Structures are given as structure tokens and as C-alpha cells.
Amino acid sequence: MVKGLYTAYTGMIYQMKKMDVLTNNLANADTTGFKKEGTTQIAFDEVLAVKIKDSSDYNLAKGIGDISLGTKIGQTYRDYSQGAYEVTDNTYDLAIDGNGFFAVSFTNKAGQSSIKYTRDGAFTLTKEGYLVTKDGDFVLNRDAALSSNGNVVNGIPQGAIRLDTALDTTIESSGEIYQNGNLVGTIGLIDFADYNYLEKYGENMYQPVAGATVIDSNARIDQGNLERSNINVVSEMVDMIQLTRAYETNQKVITTIDETLDKAVNSVGAL
């Protein structure tokens, strides 16, 4: 194995993975509540280089030093920092100021329902008065969100928020919903003790994995606003340019080594 070829190859594999993450970030720059993702890289474990066919030490392999075999893909991480606000003045557009998530009842193509979590507060009312996401998933109240109860009866999840479509609605920073001065429900706003136990689902939803702990959120809700993605398009484009140049550099390394091997075999080796 020519070490230089392998090292350049592993670098290109990592850069391809990072490029996939960068392009996904840019594609979701206008997705409400989207959180930026990034990648890490780690070095392959070093291996011991030994002399070959050296009989000076009773045919025992003799070490001549350690070598690295390049880089490999580490973890994909997510930046949960808050994005900027977009003022819409729409009654059911809600933004979270602080750490927390809205709880929604998500139904997949197979008809199975489960609770997912999102910071996308672009909600609306159905003609029956249910508060839903732009994809039609029911927004849950506080009790259902904290209990993680995703039971569905006759197509309506327990804890779904239903309002009177004929009345004006005011949503307080605590998530309490008022119509005609009467409390009619409370938005389910929750948080997690450790975000490492969250995994992405779709564009901007998350689901807990084993070990996740649901806790109450101390965040506030701002009515008439939406949280934009926390992606800086300019910095992402700069990173993409740097990544492209690094990829091209590794390509040139492979090309140079290939040309050198060609000369060694076909020119030097022919003498």
C-alpha cells in the first residue's frame, strides 16, 4: 500500500461527507426552526511500521516507527443555538425564546402516530379548530407533552388543542391560550436534560432515543413571530470554498503519486 494514496483518499471521503452536510444546511437556510449541522474528523489509529525480511534479529520484525493512515469521519453534531426572529404578526405563528421544543403528534405514511418535537412554530387552525403544523400534525398541550402520551382516538391525539375559530386568540409568553378572556388551553413546551439523546427526524423535527429525559421548559413563547434557521449563509459558502480546495488538493496528491508510480514502473523499472 502506498501510504500517500490512502491518506489522500481518506481525506476526500471526509470532505465528501462534510460537503453533504454543508449543502443540506444551505438547502434549509429558509426552513423555520432548522438547526445547523457540522461534522468532526478523527485520525485513524497509528500503526507500527516494521522492517521486512530483516534477519539481523533472528527473523523477528523490528519496528522503525509509527505511521498514520489518514483521517476518518467522526460524529455529526448539531448547533442548537437560537436563530433570529422573523416578525409575521400572524396569530398562530409562535417562536420560542430560550431552550425548548413544541410537542406535536406526528403520523407517518403507515398511519402510525408518535410524538415528535420541533421549534417550527408556523401553526394554523383546521376548520374544526384544531391547532396544527403546516403539515397537518396536531400540536399538543402541556400535559400531553410532559407525559409523552401519543395515544390517538378516532384520528385525534389525546392532548390536541382545539379552539373556537370564530373568536380572537391571545397566546401568552407562558403558552396559555385565551379566547374572550377565558383560558382554553396551554401550548406544550418541553425541554430535554441532554440534547445528546435527541436524533433528527425529517427537516426540523426531533425524536428522543433511549436515555432521553423530558423536562419542563423555562422558555417563553412570542406570538406573531417565527424563529428562522441559525445558519449563516455567508460562512457556509466560505466553508464550502475551503472544502472544495482541500478536495482538489487531495486529488492532485493522488495524481502526482500515480504519475510517479507510472514512471517508476515503466521508465526506471525498464532499465
UniProtKB/TrEMBL annotation:
UniProtKB keywords: Bacterial flagellum, Cell projection, Cilium, Flagellum
Source organism, top-level taxon: Bacteria
Main location as per UniProt: other
Residue ranges constituting the Flagellar hook protein FlgE/F/G-like D1 domain according to the UniProt record: 95-178
Domain Flagellar basal body rod protein N-terminal: 5-35
Keyword check for Lipoprotein: no
Compartment annotation: Bacterial flagellum basal body
InterPro entries named among the record's database cross-references: Flag_bb_rod_N, Flagellar_basal_body_rod_CS, Flagellar_FlgE/F/G, Flg_bb/hook_C_dom, FlgE/F/G-like, LlgE_F_G-like_D1
Entry's Gene Ontology cellular component terms: bacterial-type flagellum basal body
Residue ranges of domain Flagellar basal-body/hook protein C-terminal in the record: 223-266
GO biological process, one term: bacterial-type flagellum-dependent swarming motility
Family indicated by similarity: Belongs to the flagella basal body rod proteins family.
Record's protein name: Flagellar basal-body rod protein FlgG
Species annotation: Acetitomaculum ruminis DSM 5522
